[in-house]
Amino acid sequence: MKFKISLAQINPTLGNLEKNLVKHLEFAEKAILEGARVIVFPELSITGYLLRDLTYEVALPSNSDFFKPIKEMSKNIDIVLGFAEKGEDKIIYNSALYLSKGEIKLLYRKMFPPTHGMFEELRFFGRGETYKSIKTDYGKISVIICRDFFHPPLLSLAYFDNVDFVFAISNMPLRGLKGEKPQIQETVENASSVYTNFFSFFIVYVNRVGFDDGLGFYGGSFVQSPTGKKIVRAGLFEEEIVTGTVDTEDIYKKRTSFPLIKEENKQVFEENLRKIIGGSDD
């Protein structure tokens, strides 16, 4: 199956939900005109990233009427976005939504919010605990958020779950600019190459651009096929929408030439993992 995916590499306005919602609708309209089936926005695309004391003010429950316009838009195109979620447990989460056919099909909470160096997410957000996937018209998908991408066990769950697409939405700050490519961009792309090669699914990585209170984001969004090809990529530092055509036959091709998933024994893996967690040497 061939279809188009649009990457919305936007620069959200910190704390301005209404302005950011308008931008989501405008970019979704552009993606529809380009014939895209899915549009993907960055992490916390509705709110901006460096919220700090604004976090409570801009957090929304997933069933908020605020999302009605974008739910309506999702009748014409599937939408992945990020927002600050008021959880039913009275905890605020860094979360993602997958919307389709006018409904929320998936709600995912970031499992590994970093809190070191420039990062302080656990001061303001709770920690998600559940990997999730859903079946769509074009395949099985999961969504992860930024730092989650650097935790191979989480991507391994997607592999064992036999997903076709992993949507990784991100607010990856610019770090280590040397030569033509930021070092952090090279790290992200190297990780993507490993995952797509061994796990045989598509990676759809969307990173924001712009600044939040002096913290800059580099962009560099891309779609990578299981065959290793970068199908489409966005530039650095500029807000833009780019659209590429994916072909799910690439999954069959890769799993035929490199059939790791057929060789897996999930039960043996689970038994050995339980021993490690339990501290058993037997």
Automatic annotation (TrEMBL):
Gene3D superfamilies according to UniProt: Carbon-nitrogen hydrolase
Alphabetical list of InterPro entries matching this protein: Aliph_Amidase/BUP, C-N_Hydrolase, C-N_Hydrolase_sf
Biological process, per Gene Ontology: putrescine biosynthetic process from arginine
Lineage, opening ranks: Bacteria, Pseudomonadati, Caldisericota/Cryosericota group, Caldisericota, Caldisericia
Entry protein name: Hydrolase
Any one Gene Ontology molecular-function term assigned to this protein's record: N-carbamoylputrescine amidase activity
Hydrolase keyword on record: yes
Species whose genome carries this gene: Caldisericum exile (strain DSM 21853 / NBRC 104410 / AZM16c01)
Domain CN hydrolase residues, every copy: 3-248
Keyword annotations of the record: Hydrolase
Keyword Hydrolase: yes
Domain of life: Bacteria
